[in-house]
Amino acid sequence: MRARVWLLVGVGLVLLGIQRPPGLGDVVEVRHWSYPEYTRVVIELDRPVETEVVRLAPDPDAGRPERLYLDLGEIWVGRDFAEGIEVGDGLLRGIRIGQNAPRRARVVLDVERYERHRLLMLSHPDRIVIDVYGPREPDPHSPHPSRGLLPAGLRPIQTVVIDPGHGGRDPGAIGVGGLREKHVTLSVARGLGARLEEKGFQVIYTRESDRSMTLEERTAIAESVEGDLFISVHANAAPRRSVKGVETYYLDENHERHALNLAARENGIPRGQVNVLQRTLAKLHMEEVVPYSRRLAEMVQRQMVTGPPHGTRPQNLGVKKGPFYVLFLSNMPAILVEVGFLTNREEAQRLRDTGYLELLAEQIAEGVSRYRGESETRLAHSGAR
Q1: Is residue 299 a part of any domain in this protein?
Q2: Same domain as 188, residue 99
Q3: How confident is the model over 153-178, as a mean pLDDT?
Q4: Does one domain contain both 96 and 15?
């Protein structure tokens, strides 16, 4: 059935007094962000839903644009979204949601330009993420006018987005003496930003205070400012209090098995659902970004454990691969740095020391700076500048 027809039928069902069937879930919220290279639509639900995206060709005779639609079984929207949501960003005209049947809702994306899309199903809270890619008119005022035209490793590196993990209602890990991850990450992030600015980088923070943020919000900030690198700062925890050290992660679908517990905690999902995430990752086109993320992770990790002495150097737990939401929702080289274990008494004491945190931030900044130097060498050899 054509999209406009079913939408009218859905509204008609409600107007005719069709009661909501028992046991259905709800659409909590619909959000969207416009990035330089794609548009992201997030549909938050109060229960998980399996779905797929169907593409419909334009119908010029009927005046209908190209559309993408997906059905949400056992979901009721009634008239909550009857007016639709206008986007108008050059890729999407708008978003429409209607009751396609008494026990099924349908979401329609009216597309202005289209090249490809990807669909992600995330949990805690349950939400569907649709990214729509297509050729958008270049913005002459953009600070990175050619960003989308160059491979990730051949872009000048200027803007670094720093993401202090957790915050607000989400304390993250809680360690010895009640030390909270959200406070450690914000302190390290501020120090890291200050050091990077001294080195000539432009710095954007996903949060600068103790506030709650969704993962989509974090990456929305990164993409909206056309960041060149994304660094998410976290602190670790382990059941064994003797475990300590620093480690740096980059995104890869072939992650080590021992990364699953950490990924579950940082993603806010049960461990058993990480395998679902792994299958999702296998569908993504990460071949371009992963090698540069890995190299950035290597240089930051090396600097943290071999830089100038600052008391006892942290134990080197190495560079690892992991399926972290905050990394795969970003389209730029991205790493996740675990700066120590809050559950280790010795390391927790150091992570309370502002002087130690500043030195740690300085070493991370030095790793980023060295990565930029290596990148500039690649640019010079390629003639891309």
Answers
A1: yes
A2: no
A3: 91
A4: yes
Are both 164 and 304 inside the same structural domain? yes
8 Å CB contact between 220 and 40: yes
Domain containing residue 334: 148-382
Instruction: CATH number of the domain at 347, please.
Output: 3.40.630.40
Q: CA 153, CA 374: separation in Å to the nearest integer? A: 10
Amino acid at 191: G
Instruction: Dump pLDDT digits (tens) for 266-319.
Output: 656 566 665 554 444 444 445 567 889 999 999 999 999 987 655 668 999 999
CA angle 19, 24, 29 (to 5 degrees): 105
Q: 355 in helix, strand or coil?
A: helix
CA dist., res. 264 & res. 262, Å (int) = 5
Residues 126 and 218 occupy one common structural domain: no
Residue 362 · residue 299 · CB < 8 Å: no
Residue 16 CB partners (closer than 8 Å, separation 6+): none
Q: What is the CA radius of gyration of the chain?
A: 23
Q: Do residue 216 and residue 286 come from a single domain?
A: yes
DSSP state at residue 60: G
Q: 158 and 285, same structural domain?
A: yes
* Structural domain contains residue 139: no
Residue 108 lies in a domain: yes
The model carries a pTM of: 0.70
Domain count, the chain: 2
Contact 217, 170 (CB under 8 A): no
Q: Is residue 122 part of a domain?
A: yes
What does the pLDDT look like over 63-117, one tens digit per residue? 788 899 999 999 999 888 888 999 999 999 999 999 999 999 999 999 998 988 8
Distances in whole angstroms, Cα of residue 41 to Cα of each of 34, 93, 213, 260: 9, 12, 17, 27
Q: For residue range 328-351, what is the model confidence (pLDDT) as tens digits?
A: 666 788 899 999 999 999 999 999
- Return the CATH number at 57: 2.60.40.3500
Residue 260: alpha-carbon gap to chain centroid: 18
Instruction: State whether residue 102 is helix, strand or coil.
Output: coil
DSSP for 159-193 reads EEEEEE--BTTB---B-GGG-BHHHHHHHHHHHHH
| Beta-bridge mates of residue 101 | 104
